[in-house]
Amino acid sequence: AQKITQTQPGMFVQEKEAVTLDCTYDTSDPSYGLFWYKQPSSGEMIFLIYQGSYDQQNATEGRYSLNFQKARKSANLVISASQLGDSAMYFCAMREGWGDNQGGKLIFGQGTELSVKP
Amino acid sequence: NAGVTQTPKFQVLKTGQSMTLQCAQDMNHNSMYWYRQDPGMGLRLIYYSASEGTTDKGEVPNGYNVSRLNKREFSLRLESAAPSQTSVYFCASSEAGYGYGYTFGSGTRLTVV
After folding, report:
1. Nearest CA to CA, how far is B94 from chain A (Å)?
2. B94: which residues sit within 8 A by CB, 6+ positions away?
3. Which residue is closest to A10 within chain B, CA to CA?
4. Which pLDDT tens digit goes with each residue over B83-104?
């Protein structure tokens, strides 16, 4: 069964510094997608970045990058040059391929609450 | 704006009351989902509908029912609310395939007293 683990319930980072949020996953499906979502205090779920299991390069989106280590089954989110507006809950999630076009359900980790200090 | 619309945004129920959470998407997605979010537990899948006319249980279906009314709409019903169902509920939709993430509604904060 697929599983996502985020071991850091809370993290602090100084403004303008980089921070890494950890995520490990477990699946026996060779085809899967890994996602990171941000949830600010207002509550909405905001998509940040995606990495496919067959992607050779780490995904990047602006200040966000995904450190994908397939053999270790980790998909850490790196936020560079942290801003006060980055303070939020961050969720790692995975969707398996199921071997067809339908795709599995999105399974979430427990989340990491990031606080950016001025 | 294109996206997923959930109603209501807030609701307080008394134990034993019933209610239906409404969800509609205008992105022509086949798949729709209902999640609940509780502190420290991430988002857990309640029910999902892979396509119009089908519904299946997720991780925590007890106490809930769903209806896929048409391709756009997917409702979640609490027949007899319990305090354990106090949570934030999210509806989402997606394209088929593992390369697609979900688009989420803005959430419903439900309190059962």
Report:
1. 10
2. A103, A106, B29, B31, B33, B100, B101, B102, B103
3. B40
4. 999 999 999 999 888 888 899 9
